[in-house]
């Protein structure tokens, strides 16, 4: 069963084991992503958005530190963040499957499932995203210790002690809305890309036979959905690192207005890196996650 099939076939009731296997599979896939250039592309994206520096300069900043720089924040926070993204994505999607009535199907169901998956993901990963942002900020400020494993393990505790537990909710609402929008667009784009493929392959099938998408079809539609979706939610994505910086005292509306003042070039700073990162993210959760899930069948 793939995400595509889930969005187009008649819904069935998901059991507890289905939820565990589905969310567990996406959790494992999400944890692998940061170790396969996922964290590196995310670091590029966040630094481009935060500083506006040219990509070559940002890349040199990370690469000059060797493997620790390239993998900065990947362990533990990158893996934890990736795993939590996958876990909450799977739980949100399973919740959507459970509560949506059978008459909601096709693209409408895909959009609704995307909203559930994204909202759950946005709320669940907020603390890990905060820690990741602070590690990147420390690296950019020249803190050599920030690339160490020990720094990554202690950063969240230090932030809570200095700024209070309420810091964990900073940017949470924006993140939930942004990720719901992300996944709505991603599910919709993927369904749109898959429909003509399924229509073509359905010709000549006998009654009752299901269209089987090839691995290549699943792979490229996932990558495309992730890459294209960034151009819808980039303005909100730019807000998150700014909201979660140590010196962030401005509210969401003020920061958003400041982003629009800079015009489209400033607004879409980081879009290229984010497109690459989002393509990997969607590919791992929707394609690799399905591959892992198939191992349990």
Automatic annotation (TrEMBL):
GO BP annotations listed: mitochondrial citrate transmembrane transport
UniProt entry keywords in alphabetical sequence: Membrane, Mitochondrion, Repeat, Transmembrane, Transmembrane helix, Transport
One function term, GO molecular function aspect: citrate secondary active transmembrane transporter activity
Membrane topology: Multi-pass membrane protein
Domain of life of the organism encoding this protein: Eukaryota
Protein name: Uncharacterized protein
Location (main, coarse): mitochondrion
Family: Belongs to the mitochondrial carrier (TC 2.A.29) family.
Compartment list: Mitochondrion membrane
Solcar repeats: 105-196
Keyword Repeat among UniProt keywords: yes
PROSITE patterns, sorted: SOLCAR (PS50920)
Pfam families in alphabetical order: Mito_carr
Gene Ontology CC entries for this record: mitochondrial membrane
PANTHER family: SUCCINATE/FUMARATE MITOCHONDRIAL TRANSPORTER-RELATED, TRICARBOXYLATE TRANSPORT PROTEIN, MITOCHONDRIAL
């Amino acid at each position: 069963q793939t995400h595509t099939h889930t969005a187009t076939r008649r819904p069935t009731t998901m059991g507890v084991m289905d939820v565990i296997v589905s969310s567990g599979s996406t959790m494992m896939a999400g944890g692998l992503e940061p170790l396969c250039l996922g964290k590196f592309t995310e670091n590029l994206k966040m630094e481009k958005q935060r500083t506006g520096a040219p990509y070559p300069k940002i890349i040199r900043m990370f690469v000059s530190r060797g493997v620790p720089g390239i993998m900065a924040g990947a362990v533990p926070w990158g893996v934890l963040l990736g795993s939590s993204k996958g876990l909450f994505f799977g739980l949100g999607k399973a919740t959507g499957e459970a509560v949506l009535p059978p008459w909601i199907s096709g693209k409408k169901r895909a959009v609704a499932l995307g909203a559930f998956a994204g909202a759950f993901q946005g709320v669940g990963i907020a603390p890990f995203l905060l820690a990741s942002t602070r590690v990147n900020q420390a690296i950019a400020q020249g803190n050599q210790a920030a690339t160490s494993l020990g720094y990554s393990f202690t950063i969240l505790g230090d932030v809570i002690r200095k700024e209070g537990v309420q810091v964990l909710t900073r940017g949470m609402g924006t993140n939930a809305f942004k990720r719901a929008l992300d996944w709505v667009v991603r599910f919709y784009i993927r369904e749109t890309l898959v429909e003509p493929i399924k229509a073509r392959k359905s010709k000549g099938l006998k009654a009752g036979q299901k269209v089987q998408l090839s691995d290549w079809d699943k792979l490229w539609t996932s990558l495309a959905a992730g890459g294209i979706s960034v151009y819808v939610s980039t303005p909100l994505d730019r807000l998150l690192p700014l909201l979660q910086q140590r010196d962030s005292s401005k509210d969401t509306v003020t920061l958003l207005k400041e982003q629009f003042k800079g015009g489209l070039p400033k607004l879409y700073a980081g879009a290229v890196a984010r497109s690459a990162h989002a393509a990997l993210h969607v590919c791992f959760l929707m394609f690799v996650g399905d591959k892992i899930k198939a191992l349990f069948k």
